[in-house]
Amino acid sequence: MTKPEIDFHEGPAPTELVINDITVGDGPEAVAGGRVTVHYVGVDYETGEQFDASWDRGEPISFSLTQLIQGWKDGIPGMKVGGRRELICPPAMAYGESGGHRLAGRTLVFVIDLLQAN
Predict the structure, then answer these.
(1) Which of 2, 102, 105, 115 is the most buried (most CB within 10 A)?
(2) Domains in the chain, ordered, with CATH?
(3) Residues 105, 91: contact at Cβ < 8 Å?
(4) What is the pLDDT confidence band of residue 10, given thresholds at 50, 70 and 90?
(5) pTM
(6) CA–CA dist 45, 34 (Å, integer)
């Protein structure tokens, strides 16, 4: 797999979590509270500007699904290894409506490649 390009989204930002499977995997399925290894790219919905990407660091990241923003906690379970999924996370499902995080109040778009699930 190669680093995905995230297309700019037209229109107003969604107010609910949006889950789009780009590629459906055929490996083990991620489960709520499980551990995953992913590659991802994150962009701001309104500007299309990238704010983070594991691809740019040259290695995937592993973590428990209990340690993430709500959009990932809700959006990754059910995904299968080998899959690529887009998540559009409104502020309430990302870093909150307001507060200290630099991405608070922003709708975020992630493209996630699931490399491992256990």
Answers:
(1) 115
(2) 18-117 (3.10.50.40)
(3) yes
(4) confident
(5) 0.95
(6) 28
